[in-house]
Amino acid sequence: xxxxxxxxxxxxxxxxxxxxxxxxxxxxxNVEYLWTADSKYWGRHAPILFPIVGRVKDNKYRVEExxxxxxxxxxxxxxxxxxLENKDNTIVYRLVSSEExxxxxxxxxxxxxxxxxxxxxxxxxxxxxNIDNEKIYFTIGAHPGFNCPLIKGEDFEDYYLEFNKNxxxxxxxxxxxxxxxxxxxxxxxxxxxxxxLSKNLFIQDALIFENLNSNEVTLKSARNGKSISVNFEGFPxxxxxxxxxxxxxxxxxxxxxxxxPVDFNGDYREKPGVIxxxxxxxxxxxxxxxxxxx
Length: 294
Prior knowledge:
It holds the Pfam family Aldose_epim. This is Aldose 1-epimerase family protein. The chain has one helix at residues 99-102; strands spanning 2-6, 10-15, 20-26, 48-49, 60-63, 66-69, 82-87, 90-96, 109-118, 121-130, 136-138, 140-142, 145-147, 159-174, 181-196, 207-210, 216-221, 227-231, 237-241, 249-256, 275-277, 282-292. The longest helix is centred in the middle third of the chain and has 4 residues, at 99-102. 37% of the residues are buried. The two termini are 32 Å apart. By secondary structure, it is mainly β. The chain is globular, with a radius of gyration of 19 Å. It has a single domain (2-292), classed as Beta-galactosidase, Chain A, domain 5.
């Protein structure tokens, strides 16, 4: 089911499949800002990553000696959500654990996604509630993709990312085959707040930063005044990703958690970055997308 909501600045489409955003269009300029999910490059728009971010080692993990299989970024993005609310520029979707999910992930949960428009800003809120009779463990993240370039006739290399503070930041390196953390890193931002985009940036997959000084990053062009800002305050990790195959997109991904280290022992409860949530408690995080149509 596709649901439209809007205000005087933006028109937004979302889908109950995965609870996913599928369009953010400016009303002033009629420009599509969200990635179009062209399967030639990447067939998704802005999936939620739950109950894992990235990969678990060999796509397997353990809880109390019982082994489970789970693919990259978990299953929520592929499940049908219930529409709880559609009013006052707000959409709320809900996914509740099921017999099918319990075969992949042994915890009972309730996951809500709220989308809310405030002028030129879209706020995305994730809320996880523990409805089990024991403590649950999970990681969660966002994976919104944006068209890059935004304007016909421009190139990917015309664009850059501007952080709101200067950074001396290293990317956490992934093993090229397993996409697990190697424990190694390399300097990407050397006392600067500007990251110029190029396809070479993504030959080793995503740029993954931990505990940046910044809480906001803006996609800008050297050739027009339009921009997309993502505020990721409260998220310990930020992923930046595109496919090195001339894909005209860039993903800006706030994460709570990350892929397994290459030498991880497989006990999910000991996974680095994992969240533990007591019975009846809720975990909430949110990020904001600002669209500048100038």
